[in-house]
Amino acid sequence: MRRALRVAAVLALVFPAAARAQRPVPLVLPPGWNDSWFEKLDQGQQPRTVVAVMNFAGAEVLEQRLQIQISDALVTSMVQAGRFDVVERQRLDLVMDEQNLHQRGLVDPATAARVGKILGAQLVVYGVLTGATEQKIDKFSYDLVRIEVSMDVRAVDVSTGKVAISETAKGAAEARIITSADGTIISGPTNYDPLYHEASRQALDRAAALVSGAVPLVGFVVATENRNVTLDLGESRGVKSGDTFIVFRRGQPLLHPVSHAQIGWNKTVLAAVQVTDTENDLSHGRILNTAPGAELKPGDLVILRPST
Question: What whole-number distance in Å separates Cα of residue 212 and Cα of residue 49?
């Protein structure tokens, strides 16, 4: 028995990734679930988070150069994730004007939460464009032009007033430029705007992914066979191989002990499932671990577990 334990310990040291992969996933609901979503799910609708996206401070020069608005481009990237209902720009601008925020410049979490409450948003996204740099690197036979765009992205949970996200999103684009002895460009771009567009797009996609990661992704089990599970969430909702979902089931209503009003639902966590392959609207995975006596069935709910 001692020899077996020693061998296991050695394997854990030599193959730490394999040892970690075998650890059971904690069978608890991840943060962000809201019992009010049951009503939408019962109607066949995907629960979505209402989000307001403010203008990014310091973005004016880049926006003028590229004829885009960073906040609007971020909204486009976020909508593609399929997890959000976005507050209309006209409504947001009206509230910003009423609060004199367009003149004040930078927004703090308390201000963002206050604006979110007025708009009925659950999440308010804002940030600062921290860099849009251009670098030319001598590669002997050619020059390499590298454009980098970076932005600090913040999101405030309106219900708590706390910062849910504070991250930096970056993007980069490169191009080779070959010149003659007299400096005439033989090949390569003379206008770097397309490179700024590409770097900005990468940074915005990264920012959208950061915000999406803070919002629960919820779906259903559609089929089970042995330890194989099929979910109704796929690539179109950003699901990828390796993602882990917690499977749970709704139980009886929870009633307030005094008012007897319904205040929520009992929920039973059943299992953890890891995605192995994906389709556009489906994903397939295997059960990692289950609660004692749990048996999954179509109609059970799943919620994406944030990566750690």
Answer: 10
Model confidence over 161-194: pLDDT tens digits? 889 889 999 999 999 998 877 777 888 788 899 9
User: Is the pLDDT reported for residue 50 higher than 50?
Assistant: yes
Regarding whether 202 and 242 lie in a shared domain, the answer is: no
**Residue 31 lies in domain:** 25-47+216-305
Does residue 209 sit in the same domain as residue 106?
A: yes
Instruction: Please indicate, yes or no, if residue 69 is contained in any of the structural domains.
Output: yes
Least confident of 37-51, 89-103, 147-161, 253-267: 89-103
User: What CATH number did the domain enclosing 114 receive?
Assistant: 3.40.50
